[in-house]
Amino acid sequence: MADVNRGNRPLSPHLTIYRPQLTSMTSIFVRITGNALLLAGLLIVWWLLAASTSARAFEIANAVLTSWFGDLVLLGSLWALWYHLLGGVRHLIWDSGRALEVPISEKMGLAMIFGSLILTALTVIVI
Fold first, then answer.
1. Long-range contacts of the stretch 15-24 (C-beta < 8 A, 24+)
2. pLDDT at 7
């Protein structure tokens, strides 16, 4: 028989009562950076296709990618690449059954954040 008290049952935790945790937020950002890297890859493919098409097409693509906005996008993509890589390493460690305790997982999340920032800065300095 159908439940007549459907509206009186409690709902699952909602954003208004659920406090996001560092491990869940860093995992969500791994997915976001993966999608952002796809878009950055499309920009690079556009640049390469423009280079192989005509001088005018390359001038347009190169002007976009070497502008201040293009530099900002490429810098963000570099950070996203390091962050996504460190997130993948973290998930590989978790898949092996290690570092699943909450304090260690939170330290790994902080290491991902600060590690990606440091590796981005080092990459910019070296290159």
1. 21/106, 22/106, 22/109, 22/110, 23/102, 23/105, 23/106, 23/109
2. 65
